[in-house]
Design goal:
The chain is an alpha+beta fold. It has 4 domains: about 120 residues, 3-Layer(aba) Sandwich (Udp-n-acetylmuramoylalanyl-d-glutamate--2,6- Diaminopimelate Ligase, Chain: A, domain 1); about 110 residues, Beta-Lactamase, CATH 3.30.450.40; about 160 residues, Alpha-Beta Plaits; about 100 residues, no CATH class. The protein has 18 helices and 15 strands. Helix 7 packs across helix 10, helix 13 packs across helix 18 and helix 14 packs across helix 18. It is elongated, with a radius of gyration of 37 Å. This is PucR family transcriptional regulator. It comes from Robertmurraya beringensis. Pfam families: HTH_30 (PF13556), PucR (PF07905).
Length: about 550
């Protein structure tokens, strides 16, 4: 459907039978959005582009400079054309005005006799209103036909082809990974040049410039997945084109989401192979052979295992888990990772295949985490925050088992911290990794009591808060002023507590080696205390309030 009327179309109406095209004949293809009768000289702020102007030029009085100013304003705001009634107020059109209109292909039309402007506006407005109604009907027809075809379309190219045949202009989709699809297709060598042209023209276009290029983002799960472009070489894009573009983008989003869902279901079916991979049962060659066959575009540069701990996966439907996986992929795949997921006990385990520089993997992971934390991701039956644990990065894919074990260790350590770590990475747990390791192989409680028993006993008997004071005093590097400030106590009270600590621990407890040992034992005591509390509560998993998703 031709969704717009041009200046040339108006010349076919009865009131324009005897009109003269004085200048700008090449601009007769300009679309007309509305008709105005204008008799003012300062018109720049009154128009929005696409208006066809009728005037007697009553205020110009054959003033050449004023005449030029009015025409320049009309050209600047991209009016469709100017139609002047000569004789009553204006008898002469300056040559400079004619030259200006020809230069800018701006139609300048002349009535040599008096004409009824009111009848002209009524006639043209009726055409525009009827065309608007026709446009709405055609849009509805296009949408219904597109929705029907969407049931059988299996590829984005089919939708692009359908839109191209309907509008008869170039349609382009550009995905986030810079993959481009054109309808009609163009040579590979021309595609990047074409996209650069699109980018430049959109960014440099003036507010009133006639549009020949436009775009719209395609959103999936709240994120921009691709961008859809229209390019018209021989005409200006209209409101109808923009509406068609919007409907097409919606259809593409539905098709792409359906494809992503099917792919996600397929990934879930691969869980048996992934389980064996996490258990260390596949060799490096076997892993590369598998990935090369099923995912030939992947170029692995190391991997890392990431775990999302949930309350109970059994409480969630398959649809819940599938959409959770889609959300995670939407935030991390743009950071240069390919994800494989598997459900294990209370966690959804992801293997992140790194495809960019290995030295930047952690920075990119943090960027994905930040985006996920800011998202509106919710699962209806999840009443507590997600716990996220990331194992160590491994350069070889056969060593993913090591990353998996360290991710499990990260969750165990996070569960046992009195003040939960806000870090999700195994590499950043530092001293807590050593405490966890010692607790597995020695009687850590006995060693802790060797250093802290006098302080703990005193606190139990007198509620003296010596352990809290000791921990704060060491954290402040022995600064009494800062310690008193953090504990909200007066200095005299602090001096009394420090004297008591010196009697119980020895006056050398700030000496370097002993101080390091005491600080280590304080952290170990908190680690063991949290473990004991968990046992007393029947082994129920404690979920940190921080370090959450």
């Amino acid at each position: 459907m031709k969704s717009y009327i041009t200046v040339g179309d108006l010349l076919q109406r009865k009131h324009f039978e005897e009109i003269e095209i004085l200048a700008g004949e090449e601009g007769l293809i300009r679309p007309v959005k509305w008709v105005h009768i204008v008799e003012v000289t300062n018109i720049r702020k009154l128009l929005r582009g696409g208006e066809f102007i009728l005037s007697t030029c009553a205020l110009l009085h054959d003033n050449k400079e004023l005449f030029l100013s009015v025409v320049e304003q009309l050209i600047e705001v991209h009016a469709s054309g100017l139609c002047i009634e000569l004789g009553t107020y204006t008898t002469h059109i300056p040559n400079e005005v004619i030259d200006l209109c020809n230069l800018h292909q701006f139609p300048l039309l002349i009535f040599h006799n008096e004409v009824p402007f009111v009848e002209i506006t009524q006639d043209i407005h009726s055409i525009l209103i009827n065309r608007q109604y026709q446009m709405i009907s055609e849009l509805e027809s296009y949408t219904q036909e597109l929705n029907k075809k969407l049931l059988t379309f299996g590829h984005t190219k089919e939708i692009l082809q359908f839109t191209k045949e309907y509008l008869q202009i170039q349609v382009v989709i550009v995905f986030n990974n810079q993959e481009m699809q054109f309808s009609p297709d163009v040579k590979t060598s021309e595609k990047k040049k074409f996209i650069q042209l699109i980018h430049d023209e959109i960014n440099q276009g003036a507010d009133f410039a006639p549009q020949t290029i436009t775009k719209i983002p395609i959103h999936i799960l709240g994120d921009t997945y691709a961008e859809l472009y229209l390019l018209a070489e021989n005409r200006t894009l209209t409101e109808f084109d923009h509406l068609i573009l919007d409907r097409t983008a919606t259809a593409l989003a539905q098709l792409l989401l359906r494809q992503l869902y099917v792919e996600e279901k397929k990934r879930i079916e691969e869980s048996e192979w992934l389980t064996a991979w996490l258990d260390g049962e596949h060799s490096e060659d076997a892993i590369h052979d598998y990935l090369g066959y099923h995912f030939p575009k992947i170029k692995p540069k190391g991997a890392v295992v990431c775990q999302f701990k949930l309350e109970s996966i059994s409480d969630f439907s398959t649809l819940d888990i599938t959409y959770f996986n889609l959300y995670v992929r939407a935030f991390f795949e743009p950071q240069g990772f390919t994800l494989f997921s598997i459900e294990k006990k209370h966690t959804i385990t992801f293997i992140f295949i790194n495809e960019r520089n290995a030295s930047t993997w952690k920075v990119r992971m943090k960027e994905g985490i930040q985006r996920l934390e800011k998202s509106d991701l919710r699962m209806s039956k999840q009443t507590t925050p997600f716990v996220l644990a990331i194992g160590k990065f491994v350069p070889q894919l056969a060593h993913v088992h090591e990353s998996y074990l360290t991710s499990l260790e990260t969750i165990r350590i996070q569960d046992r911290l009195t003040v939960p770590s806000q870090c999700h990475f195994y590499d950043d747990l530092h001293i807590f990794r050593l405490i966890s390791l010692l607790n597995k192989h020695v009687n850590l409680q006995e060693i802790v009591m060797e250093y802290l028993e006098p302080v703990l006993t005193y606190d139990d008997m007198y509620n003296g808060k010596l352990l809290e004071t000791l921990k704060t005093y060491l954290a402040c590097n022995g600064s009494k002023q800062e310690t008193a400030k953090r504990l909200f106590i007066v200095r005299q009270t602090l001096y009394h507590r420090i004297e008591k600590l010196e009697k119980l621990l020895g006056d050398d407890f700030l000496h370097h080696e002993k101080r390091l040992a005491i600080e280590f034992m304080i952290l170990s005591h908190e680690f063991l205390l949290t473990s004991q509390l968990k046992k007393e509560k029947g082994g129920r998993q404690l979920v940190p309030k921080e370090g959450k998703m």
